[in-house]
Amino acid sequence: MAVPEIDRGLWIRNFHETPGRKTRLVCLPHAGGSASFFFPVSRALSSGLDVVAIQYPGRQDRRKEKCVETIHELARRIVEVLDPRPGGQPIALFGHSLGATLGFEMARLMEERDAAPVHLFASGRRAPSRPRDESVHKRDDEGLLAELRELSGTDARALGSEEVLRMALPAIRNDYRAAETYVYEEGPALSCPITVFTGDNDPKVTLDEARAWSTHTTADFQMHTYTGGHFFLTDHQPAMLSTISDRLAPVAAPAT
């Protein structure tokens, strides 16, 4: 069923529109995150790529909408909105934390449509087949806030505003629940290359858990390790974006 254009606009944010049929880089936020987190990525890469970010329901201008409760359902809905087709615009996926697992499940659905992504970039997340027993989503509000401060993310700038942060807690809790109750289902490995970005001091991902992404592809695999914790990417953005550009160069669609 076709998705109305107005709904596409709710989901897909294009901060720097560029003409032509370029390879599309779809950016997927972390738990509690929003599309605006990837504004700097769009600014840096939009000259060579069609960079878009996904806005999940339940936050910012979609705050009044019901959150999607599972990663599998969120993946299905985003793929419906993107509507990838065989021979269509090449699509690469870039997700951080929850967004990385979401990207993996989206890639699976896209392969079922014979419209596999050209690349999956997984940042700050253990491989789907490496579960942990976590229950942050069951904590009270103060416990959830403590987790956010420890990770220094989800938007760190908002941590100084009690009103803004508490307003976002329902979406943050929902996303943590989705990530922590996610169950990997056995299936074929992806056919697209996977590049993993990870921090050497990330409490959410060990190097071994990050390296296990290699089992989820039959294509090329690379892992890049940076100094820092869960939000290492804010300090290493230029290096990461250079890697993304280099990895996508061989498959980049011409800007016609």
Automatic annotation (TrEMBL):
This is Surfactin synthase thioesterase subunit. SUPFAM superfamilies: alpha/beta-Hydrolases. It comes from Streptomyces atratus. One of its GO terms (biological process) is lipid biosynthetic process. Residues 24-247 form the Thioesterase domain. It comes from the Bacteria. It holds the Pfam family Thioesterase. Belongs to the thioesterase family. InterPro entries: AB_hydrolase_fold, TEII, Thioesterase.
